[in-house]
C-alpha cells in the first residue's frame, strides 16, 4: 500500500487557483521529486501533505488514515530551516526526540549519528549563526531524519549549498534514502537535480498547478 495518498487536492488562495485536482501516491523506499517552474504549486502541495496548509478540497491519507494537520509520521525540512538559534547543533538535531520525551543520553546518541551522516561531525556544539547556510540546511535534514518519521518532506534542500558541495550533499542524501527505506517527497525547480536524485519525477505545470507527467528516470539506467 502507498504510504501517502494525495486525493483530488485543490487549493485556492483567494482568487488564485494554486492547485487543481492533484492525485498522487507515494511508496516506501522511494524518492519522488515534485518538479516545475516557480509558482506551479510545489511548495503549496508539500505544505498540504505536511498538514501545514489546509487544502480547499480533497484529502491527504497517510498510512491509511486521512490527516488534517501535522503529525509525527511526517517530518519536513523547509527553506528557512526553522532552527532554534539559541540551541547547539546537537540540541537542534535531537529536538524532535526531546519533544517525544526521549532521555538526553539516547537522543544525543541518535543525534550524533545523523550529524555524522550529513557530514557535520565536529560541529555538535556550534550554534546556527556560526554555520553557513548549507550547513544549517544539513542540520535541518539531520533533525528530520533523527525523529524517524515514515515520510520526509524536503523543500529545495540544496538551495543554500554552494556548487562544489552540492553533489557530495546529494550523495549523502541518496545514501540516507537507501539506508532508511522511508518515503521521500522532494521539491526542486532544477531538472538536473531531479534526474540525479529521484526514483520518480512528478512534473507540475503552472496556472493552476496540475500534474502534467510522471517520469521514472531510473528506467533507462538499468
Ligand atoms: P518558492 O521558492 O517555492 O517559489 P516563493 O519564494 O515563491 O517560494 O514563496 C515563499 C513562500 O511565500 C511560499 O511558501 C508561500 O507560502 C509564500 N507565498 C508565495 N507567494 C505568495 C503570495 N502571492 N502571497 C503570500 N504568500 C506567498
Ligand atoms: P512553487 O513552490 O512551485 O514556486 P507555490 O506553492 O509557492 O509555488 O505557489 C503557487 C501559487 O500560489 C503561486 O501563484 C503563489 O503566488 C501562490 N501562493 C503561494 N502561497 C500563497 C499564499 N500564502 N497566499 C497567496 N498566494 C500564495
Automatic annotation (TrEMBL):
Annotated protein name in UniProt: NitT/TauT family transport system ATP-binding protein
UniProt entry keywords in alphabetical sequence: ATP-binding, Nucleotide-binding, Transport
Ranges for domain ABC transporter: 4-222
Species name: Paracoccus chinensis
MF GO annotations: ATP binding; ATP hydrolysis activity
Residues shown, of full length: 20 to 241 of 269
Family listed: Belongs to the ABC transporter superfamily.
Amino acid at each position: 500500500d502507498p504510504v501517502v495518498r494525495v486525493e483530488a487536492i485543490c487549493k485556492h488562495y483567494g482568487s488564485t487557483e494554486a492547485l487543481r485536482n492533484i492525485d498522487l501516491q507515494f511508496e516506501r523506499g522511494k524518492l519522488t521529486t515534485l518538479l516545475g517552474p516557480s509558482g506551479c504549486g510545489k511548495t503549496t502541495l508539500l505544505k498540504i501533505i505536511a498538514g501545514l496548509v489546509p487544502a480547499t478540497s480533497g484529502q491527504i491519507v497517510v498510512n491509511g488514515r486521512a490527516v488534517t494537520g501535522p503529525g509525527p509520521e511526517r517530518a519536513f525540512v523547509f527553506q528557512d530551516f526553522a532552527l532554534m538559534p539559541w540551541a547547539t547543533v546537537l540540541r537542534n538535531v535531537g529536538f524532535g526526540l526531546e519533544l517525544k520525551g526521549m532521555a538526553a543520553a539516547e537522543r544525543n546518541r541518535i543525534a550524533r549519528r545523523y550529524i555524522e551522516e550529513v557530514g557535520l561531525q565536529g560541529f555538535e556544539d556550534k550554534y546556527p549563526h556560526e554555520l553557513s547556510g548549507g550547513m544549517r540546511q544539513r542540520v535541518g535534514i539531520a533533525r528530520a531524519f533523527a525523529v524517524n518519521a515514515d515520510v520526509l518532506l524536503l523543500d529545495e534542500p540544496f538551495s543554500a549549498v554552494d556548487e562544489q558541495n552540492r553533489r557530495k550533499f546529494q550523495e549523502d542524501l541518496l545514501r540516507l534514502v537507501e539506508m532508511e527505506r522511508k518515503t521521500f517527497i522532494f521539491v526542486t525547480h532544477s531538472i538536473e537535480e531531479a534526474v540525479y536524485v529521484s526514483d520518480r519525477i512528478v512534473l507540475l505545470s503552472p496556472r493552476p498547478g496540475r500534474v502534467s507527467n510522471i517520469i521514472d528516470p531510473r528506467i533507462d539506467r538499468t
